[in-house]
Structure to design on (144 residues):
């Protein structure tokens, strides 16, 4: 009976090791593919002009002109806070920040960060799967 339990345990551990190796390889593939795509997007987008939606005017300073965006003005923020409160202002700023992650200049960094996070999640999952499984007999021996 002991031999049967041992072979079942060895088989389960071998299956867990194979699954952990597959997930680890998947993590490496996600990391490489994500970084390659983010580099490609970075070089394809290059220097693109700023998104000119919401421009309410231009400011000239030092021989250069800079766009003044509506959502960056104090009047806009004051009106937003007056209409919806601080929570609406915070929600609008959070929405603008999240939307900016998918624009041309931030997209490569967003893709790289997401691929690194997904690869780390795969490697952590593979590590947790590969941990040795405790058998009930082994568990009872250290309880005392």
């Amino acid at each position: 009976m002991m031999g049967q339990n041992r072979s079942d345990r060895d088989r389960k551990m071998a299956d867990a090791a194979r699954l952990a190796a597959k997930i680890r390889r998947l993590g490496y593939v996600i990391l490489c593919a994500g970084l390659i795509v983010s580099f490609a997007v970075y070089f394809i987008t290059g220097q693109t002009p700023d998104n000119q939606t919401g421009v309410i005017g231009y400011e000239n300073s030092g021989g250069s002109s800079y766009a003044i965006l509506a959502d960056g003005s104090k009047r806009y923020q004051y009106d937003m806070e007056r209409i919806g409160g601080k929570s609406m202002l915070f929600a609008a700023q959070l929405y603008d920040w999240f939307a900016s992650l998918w624009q041309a200049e931030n997209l490569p960094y967003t893709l790289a960060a997401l691929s690194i996070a997904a690869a780390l999640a795969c490697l952590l999952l593979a590590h947790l799967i590969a941990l040795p499984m405790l058998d009930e007999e082994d568990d009872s021996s250290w309880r005392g």
In short: Strands lie at 55-61, 64-69. Residues 86 and 125 are 40 Å apart (CA to CA).
